[in-house]
Design brief:
The chain is an alpha+beta fold. It folds into 2 domains: 113 residues, no CATH class; 80 residues, no CATH class. Helix content is 52%, strand content 14%. It is built from 9 helices and 7 strands; from the N terminus they run H-E-E-E-H-H-H-H-E-E-H-H-H-H-E-E. Strands 1-2-3-7-6 form a 5-stranded antiparallel beta sheet. It has a two-stranded antiparallel sheet with strand order 4-5. Helix 4 packs across helix 7. The longest helix is centred in the C-terminal third of the chain and has 20 residues. It starts with a helix and ends with a strand.
Length: 225
């Protein structure tokens, strides 16, 4: 603690006697009421990483800027969970519309698969005049349904974006938290790389103050108030 006081006093240009220990072993207070968090290199990084992870747990990933959210979606989310969710959603959709009637085809599912090129005229019966009877499907229905689900999924490059667009930010945060889908360590490291440790530790101004290494260790200060 003594070396931290020396380092902070030297930076502020004040006498060491005007700085006292605060409510935390790493917090120092000046006689003017200013509070500083003073840490070495290792502790500064660990404290900043902890602050990022706490922010994720309390506010969710949608509390970050849109550009950083894009990084998270592409690099630090379990996309497999969202791929499965998307496929299950489209499977349910396909099964639902199979029960809906259509004026030309046996049902709405057949109509949609025909319009999308999943099935063609060869999959239908013909009447005695050689005309195609679109109400009688003769193909492999289960195979066609599976191909149609894949076709619907393939329209999305990003399954996370599919979930966000269909269910909203709040639901996205909920499932990410509920199913532990975030690589929080990777996010913490990247957030510090983007914004610096001071952004997460210096409540007063977001700045990191380099106190130098002439006082037993390399120290950094973060003003709290």
């Amino acid at each position: 603690m003594e070396s931290k006081i020396k380092a902070l006093a030297a930076y502020l240009g004040v006498d060491e006697s005007t700085i006292s220990e605060g409510y935390d072993d790493d917090i120092l207070e000046t006689e003017d009421g200013e509070e500083y968090l003073v840490l070495d290199e290792y502790d500064a990084t660990e404290r900043a990483r902890e602050a990022v992870i706490n922010s994720i747990e309390e506010l969710g990933i949608t509390s970050f800027t849109e550009s950083f959210q894009e990084w998270v979606y592409s690099n630090a989310l379990d996309e497999e969970w969202f791929e499965d969710a998307m496929r299950e959603s489209y499977e349910a959709y396909v099964n639902d519309i199979e029960d809906e009637s259509d004026s030309t085809y046996d049902n709405r599912l057949i109509q949609e698969m025909y319009d999308e090129g999943i099935i063609d005229d060869e999959d239908f019966d013909t009447d005695e005049d050689g005309e195609i009877d679109y109400t009688v499907f003769q193909g492999d229905l289960e195979d066609a349904k599976e191909r149609y689900v894949s076709h619907l999924c393939d329209q999305w490059d990003d399954p996370v974006q599919w979930y966000k667009d269909n269910f909203g930010d709040e639901s996205l945060d909920d499932v990410v938290s509920q199913h532990n889908l975030l690589d929080t360590d990777a996010i913490a490291d990247e957030a510090i790389e983007w914004d610096s440790r001071g952004h997460f530790l210096a409540d007063y101004d977001g700045d990191e103050i380099d106190l130098g290494d002439e006082f037993d260790d390399q120290y950094y200060a973060y003003r709290l108030s």
